Amino acid sequence: MPIDPSVALGASLPIQEFSWSSSDVQLYNLGLGAGARPTDAGELRYLRDGDPQVLPTFATVAATFHDTEPPKVSFPGVEIDLAKVVHGSQEVKVHAPIPASGKGRTTTRIAEVWDKGKAAVIVQESVTEDLDGNPLWTARSSIFARGEGGFGGERGPSEAVALPDREPDAEFDVPTLPQQALLYRLCGDRNPLHSDPEFAKAAGFPAPILHGLCTYGTVCKSITDHLLDSDATRVAGFRAKFAGVVFPGETLRVRVWKSGNQLLATVTVTDRDLAPALADVVLTIA
């Protein structure tokens, strides 16, 4: 049985100790499209030698940045074919601005396992500290495993962000590069779904798709640039649900509403009649 919730729920994953450098941060930022305006002072903050500014979304790749093997979905009580898995949601909260280089230790547990009938949802929670025990960030992510439901578990909650009943405060388009998935995969996610056309077809897609976390980071950067003066230190947290696929080279349309200390957003794909890409997007301002 691929999923045994009695074993999986609450299980701890191996502790990860890792380090990152300012070059890693620069490469991550390039993977999100940084440098598209190569003479813009705000844009160049992301690419300074030695001290590039760090988006909170870098936390999603920091521990695995130097991995060169495809990831495996193999946890206590969980064994799932990688081709069946897509990212469901992601949330990161930073406890202080992430330094441009450092060392960290992450502890992770399986917090929730939900049975959606034809699919399963597995939620992980992780806490990252520096090696002196100071908190760096807290993350929560879910994966959606097609064909792995029906094990008799609960369906889980259905949560949605309520948008203001008015026109957005900002709306802008964000292009992606045709080679963006090939660049972003150098940040540690070598899933062939994003680079191998035959693997993508076997998984049910006409071509390799952009990493969900690339879309996630790209949108965080674009909102930061348009509404927070390109100042990543003003971002205390960022969360979103992955509502649809994005193909490299497509253009994202981001619509943003201001709500207290939060910026709420929707993200669609202009190339495919505004097909959804991200939903329930919330950027929390520090």
TrEMBL record:
Record PANTHER family: ENOYL-COA HYDRATASE CHSH3, PEROXISOMAL MULTIFUNCTIONAL ENZYME TYPE 2-RELATED
* Record InterPro entries: HotDog_dom_sf (IPR029069), MaoC-like_dom (IPR002539), MFE-2_N (IPR054357)
**Organism domain of life:** Bacteria
User: What residues does the Peroxisomal multifunctional enzyme type 2-like N-terminal domain cover?
Assistant: 18-147
Protein name per the record? MaoC/PaaZ C-terminal domain-containing protein
Q: Where does the MaoC-like domain start and stop, copy by copy?
A: 162-267
* Cited SUPFAM superfamilies: Thioesterase/thiol ester dehydrase-isomerase
Q: Which family does it belong to?
A: Belongs to the enoyl-CoA hydratase/isomerase family.
